[in-house]
Write a structure and sequence with these properties.
Elements (H helix, E strand, L loop, with lengths): L3 E6 L8 E7 L2 E8 L2 E6 L13 E3 L2 E3 L6 E2 L16 E2 L1 E4 L2 E5 L1
Antiparallel strand pairs: 1-10, 2-3, 3-4, 4-8, 5-6, 6-7, 9-10
Length: about 100
């Protein structure tokens, strides 16, 4: 059975076409809201360690604020190198709580 962890409440989610970071145990999760579709992914850009949740949404991708690497919030693939991927986590909302499966 999947083990979902409460990340935040639905009222704290980023608005459409924005990203936001949330602490989750010893890691930080980036929630991206791309055209109203929410995705949860690792917050650390694999290029140089930038905070993805502080970046912007551009062309349906989460763009790292440090060096502009773009990440697909559905697959975790980097636009600059599709072999490089951040982890994408299952996400669901229940009774106003945002839950991720880590």
């Amino acid at each position: 059975m999947p083990n979902f962890t409460k990340l935040t409440t639905a009222s704290e989610l980023p608005p459409t076409d924005e990203a936001k970071e949330f602490p989750c145990g010893e890691r930080t999760i980036c929630i991206a809201n791309v055209n109203g579709t929410l995705s949860a992914m690792d917050n650390v850009c694999l290029h140089r360690g930038g905070p993805l949740g502080q970046g912007m949404i551009e062309g349906g991708k989460v763009v790292c604020p440090w060096h502009g690497w773009a990440w697909d919030p559905k697959t975790g693939e980097a636009s600059q190198n599709p072999i490089v991927k951040v982890t994408v986590y299952p996400l669901k909302i229940e009774n106003g709580d945002v839950l991720v499966e880590i």
